[in-house]
């Protein structure tokens, strides 16, 4: 009996050992899956299935546009408010105040290294550093600025630069989806989404020439000079300002359209400055009081209350009391629209103006001149 029990115990031990070996090396023989982390030496693991962007994802647009959006760090040397006074320097020497640092964003728009940003981002800076998404850092040179649109052009000397494609901002519609890309609060490049809330915003008192795209995509301090792009990753505008009571985004942000930025870019790169049209008039928004004063019955347009003697408008026959309703085929309804339309005219090239003179509609051909620099009032 003892021998039978010993034989039984040995047989069970051998069977258990065999089961363990087979279960470890060939679990499929027993109809089992391999233990977690075990991989058959004779079988390659199944290839990973590529992850497809979810429906409605903006991943492709962000991936295409983001490399061309840069961070901009600026610094201003410490200066005492009276440091330019020679008597102050004589008695107290050169005394500096507290050094200032600034933060903003920019967009690379050409392989030659031109970067679009806001003028207020780089204005007065003694040093400007551009930081790319691939961590490259370089000092930038200011090629030119245009305070009247709050745009500036920088240049960086680097190879293999990512470049953003300039889109057609004139084709944007209210309700179109857009992305805002920049470096808010210095936290690093950030992408936010929203829609075009309004077009042609003006009379905001931000710039002299205003034709803003309004969006609810989150724009915060540090986003200035960054990109507003469409769902294909094309540049639609340069983010420039927000309406806020707290200093952060409240869903009302403004961007300068690419159409305006392109004109500024081409003018500064080609001529070193922006050339705009000018006709020499003093315009005012039409009001019932002004209409009554000048005896006009127009209900829309911009009334001219003064004409510069021997200026382009005077030479063409425009008079005080005329109401301009159309410039070169584009309707104008307020002073801001007239300023922008006249500024866009090519100096020396005849352009058609549609004018209401009392009860009569008159077409007047005007040859605009070159708008004097930094002229804040009048056209």
Please, could you describe this protein's structure?
The protein is an alpha+beta fold. It has a 7-stranded antiparallel beta sheet. It has a 6-stranded antiparallel β-barrel with strand order 8-9-10-13-12-11. The protein has 3 domains: 67-155, Thrombin, subunit H (Beta Barrel); 169-271, Thrombin, subunit H (Beta Barrel); 277-370, Pdz3 Domain (Roll). It is elongated, with a radius of gyration of 33 Å. It is built from 8 helices and 21 strands. It is 20% helix and 30% strand. It has helices spanning 2-25, 59-65, 86-92, 119-122, 258-271, 288-294, 312-316, 335-343; strands spanning 69-76, 100-108, 114-118, 127-131, 137-139, 141-146, 151-155, 177-182, 190-201, 212-215, 227-229, 235-242, 253-257, 277-278, 281-285, 302-307, 323-327, 330-331, 351-357, 360-366, 369-370.
Number of E-type strands:
21
Low-confidence stretches: 36-43
Number of domains: 3
> In one word, what is the shape?
elongated
Widest sheet: strand order? 5-4-1-2-3-7-6
Which class do the helix and strand fractions yield?
alpha+beta
Share in helix? 10-25%
Query: Which superfamily, in CATH terms, is the homologous superfamily of the largest domain?
Result: Trypsin-like serine proteases
The CATH C-level name of the largest domain is Mainly Beta
The CATH architecture of the largest domain would be Beta Barrel
| Radius of gyration based on Cα positions | 33 Å
CATH topology of the largest domain: Thrombin, subunit H
Largest sheet, strands/sense/barrel: 7 strands, antiparallel
Distance between the termini: 121 Å
N-to-C order of helices and strands? HHEHEEHEEEEEEEEEEHEEHEHEEHEEE
* Overall mean confidence score, pLDDT: 82
Helix count from the secondary structure assignment: 8
Strand content: 25-35%
């Amino acid at each position: 009996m003892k021998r039978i029990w010993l034989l039984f115990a040995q047989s069970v031990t051998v069977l258990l050992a065999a089961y363990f070996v087979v279960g470890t090396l060939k679990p499929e023989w027993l109809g089992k899956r391999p233990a977690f982390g075990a991989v058959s030496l004779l079988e390659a693991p199944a290839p990973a299935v590529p992850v497809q962007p979810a429906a409605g994802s903006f991943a492709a647009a962000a991936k295409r546009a983001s490399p061309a959006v840069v961070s901009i760090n600026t610094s201003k040397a410490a200066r005492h408010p009276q440091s330019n006074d020679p008597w102050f320097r004589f008695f107290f020497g050169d005394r500096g105040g507290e050094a200032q640092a600034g933060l903003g964003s920019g967009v690379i728009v050409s392989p030659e290294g031109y970067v679009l940003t806001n003028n207020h981002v780089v204005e007065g800076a003694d040093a400007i550093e551009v930081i790319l998404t691939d961590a490259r850092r370089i000092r930038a040179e200011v090629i030119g600025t245009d305070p009247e649109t709050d745009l500036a052009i920088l240049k960086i000397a680097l190879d293999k630069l990512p470049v953003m494609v300039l889109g057609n901002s004139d084709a944007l519609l209210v309700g179109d989806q857009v992305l805002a890309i920049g470096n808010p609060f210095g936290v690093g490049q950030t992408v936010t989404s929203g829609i075009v809330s309004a077009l042609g915003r003006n009379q905001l008192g931000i710039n002299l020439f205003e034709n803003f795209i309004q969006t609810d995509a989150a724009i915060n301090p540090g986003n200035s000079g960054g990109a507003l792009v469409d769902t294909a990753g094309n540049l639609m505008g340069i983010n420039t300002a927000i309406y806020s009571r707290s200093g952060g985004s409240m869903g009302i942000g403004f961007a300068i359209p690419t159409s305006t930025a392109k004109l500024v870019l081409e003018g500064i790169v080609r001529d070193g400055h922006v050339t705009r049209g000018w006709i020499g008039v003093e315009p005012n928004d039409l009001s019932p009081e002004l209409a009554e004063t000048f005896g006009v019955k127009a209900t829309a347009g911009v009334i001219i209350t003064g004409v510069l003697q021997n200026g382009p408008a005077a030479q063409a026959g425009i008079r005080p009391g005329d109401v301009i309703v159309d410039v070169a085929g584009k309707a104008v309804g307020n002073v801001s629209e007239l300023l922008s339309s006249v500024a866009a005219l090519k100096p020396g090239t005849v352009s058609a103006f549609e004018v209401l003179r009392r009860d009569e509609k008159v077409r007047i051909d005007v040859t605009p001149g070159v708008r004097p620099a930094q002229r804040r009032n009048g056209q």
